[in-house]
Write a structure and sequence with these properties.
single chain, mainly beta, four-stranded antiparallel β-sheet
Length: 106
């Protein structure tokens, strides 16, 4: 499935805001992206292909300070499966910006 879900960690608030490396990686057909927010805010996670074209917006919403996980099912905005290759996910919240690389192998 797809969608964002909270990851319980004994109700402790995360100390840092960060995005983690996806797993599994390489992946097929889907992968999980985890991230944590030490304070509430608007979060955007977008996936880009190697050409820098946006493939999919995974998250674009205001979230509470918690640990989260997000599954990407390897499909674009039109629900079509994307090709094998390198993809990047960009995590943005407040002043925090991070980009990580992932590999889809079919």
């Amino acid at each position: 499935g797809e969608g964002i879900f909270e990851v319980n960690s004994e109700n402790e608030l995360p100390l840092v805001t960060k995005v983690y490396q996806n797993y599994p990686n390489p992946f097929n057909p889907e992968t999980t992206i985890r991230f944590s927010l030490s304070q509430p805010g608007k979060v955007k996670i977008e996936i880009f292909n190697i050409k820098g074209e946006k493939v999919k917006t995974l998250v674009d919403q205001h979230l509470e300070a918690k640990n989260y996980a997000m599954i990407w099912n390897g499909k674009d905005e039109n629900r079509k499966s994307v090709a094998s290759g390198v993809y990047f996910y960009k995590f943005q919240t407040g002043k925090h910006l991070d980009t990580k690389k992932m590999l889809l192998i079919k």
